Each structure stands twice: as C-alpha cells, then as structure tokens.
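Homework help board

Subject: predicted structure for assignment chain

Our instructor gave us this sequence and asked us to write out the predicted structure in token form, then describe one feature. I got the tokens but I'm not sure how to describe them. Can anyone check?
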Amino acid sequence: MTHRLIRWLPAAAVAAIVAAPAAPAAQAPARGSAELIAQLSAKPTPRLNGKPDFNGTWDHLGGIEFVRPQKLPDGSLCLRGCKPAAGAARPAPAPAPAPVAAAAPRPAQPTPPEALFPKYKPEFLAKVKDLSARQVETDSALKCLAPGVPRIGPPHKIVQNAKEVVFLYDDVNGGFFRIIPVDGRTTFRKDLPASFLGDSIGRFEADTLVVETTNFNEDTWLTDNGAFHTTGLKVVERLRRVGDTIEYTVTAHDPDVLVEPWNAKPYTMWITAMELEEPARCEDRDLDHVIDGTHHDNPR
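My token output:
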C-alpha cells in the first residue's frame, strides 16, 4: 500500500514524505514503575496444565538491591545508612555492583514502617530489643547464612511443572532454592531436620498458588531488628499471576510469641528476560574487625 501511494503522488509530495523525520520511539517505562506494572498486568495470563504458569525470571528489586557500598574517608566501607567520619563531608554512594541497576520505587503499596514489624507479646519485647541492639552479633543473616522465610522475600526465578514448583533466589548471601510439591499431598515430611528455609507444601486455590512452610530452626529472623521466631513458625505465601506480573503476599504465624499473625510487606513482581547468574560468594570477613557492634540495618 505504501508503494502504491508514493507512485501516484506528485514528486514534491514524495520528497516531503521521504524527508519527513521518523517519529521518536516511545520511551520504555522505568523498571518497577507503576506504568510498567500496569502494562504487564494487562496482558493475558499464561496457563500450564490448566493452572497459571509461574515459569520465568521475576524482578522485584529484591535480593542485593539494598546494598549501596560507599567508602568513607577513614578507609572503612559502609553498605547502608552509615554516617561519614567526623568533620568530613558524606561521600557519594558508590555504584551498585553490576549488573544490578539503580533501584526504582517499589510497586508495593506504601505502608508505615511500624506496621511492617511483627507484634510481640509483652514478655518478649525485651528480647527483641536486645537482639536488635546487638544485631551485629546476633543476626545470622550477617554471617552468610540463609535469611529464612519470609525474610528472604519472593523468589527471583520459578520453575514449574505438574508435580512441583521450584523457587530460586539470588540473595546477597548467595543462591538458595526451595522445592515445593503441588501433587496434592497435605502432610509435611517427618524425616527432615529443622532448617533455615523449612519444608513446604503447595496447592492451588483457584488461580492463586498457596505455599505453606513449617519445620524451621530458630536461627533466622522474620525481618530486621531482632524479629526472632520459634520452631513453631508457620509461613503462608500466596502468589497470584496477573498477566506478566505476580502479586506476592506472605503471612507468618507464630502464636507462641506473636500477638497476631504478621503480614510482611507485599510485592508485585514482573517478568524479565534477564537470567540469573551465579551469585558472588558470600564470605564473612568483617565481624572479627567490627569497631562499633551496635545496631546494623539489614533490610529485606
């Protein structure tokens, strides 16, 4: 049709069409922006064996995103929230380790910080305060160990078939995985020792994947700031695929120490073509050289 149109137009008109500048390409929505989430969630939801297809690599600005290294004038290295040395101007943050891009605002709904912390029974508040004050000493996540669930956050890649769903993580402490059966079983295995990431069973409730996890050890926290738990912890994750996004919510149940079940921060994840790479090795070289052992942020 274009060739026919040009063939019958006057020469001046043809020249004007040929010389007309091309329309500028539309700028892609920013990573994690509301515009990107809206575009991807409007797409059709893929299905696998009649269920939503969760296969893919999923971005949610998690994992190592919160780490922003900066070198202070005294030669020390600050990862997050550190103050500059006395009498020196605060240095500009160093670039995040490649290939992590600059973090954009999370698509999750804003929530007041106090609402993000579990509500402990009065008799355990002193313990929480003490653990938080001595976080450098007491937080196992600062010792290259698995952060636990739900602290590790949503998975970065999901592999799904008719019998199981595999969660893969690219965490600042290394690469971790969870294998979640979705074959209809309703009882947990009884021959496993307690672990950092627990034992999981999955099921579908309509188009939502529900994952229940138990059998945790006591070596992890629910979140930052001394949020300990007991071996009676039960975590329920819900993943709902909407187009090329996943709505992820998680609730921690630990009635021995918590006043009520705790809902961690929700996430919206979006599909990405970027594949996971082998994570950098996590090595604990710092704790023996810490000068100030007071509270140390490690938000997840």
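Reply (TA_rk): Your tokens look well-formed. For the description, you could write something like this. The helical segments are 2-8, 11-19, 34-41, 125-133, 135-138. That's the kind of observation they're looking for.
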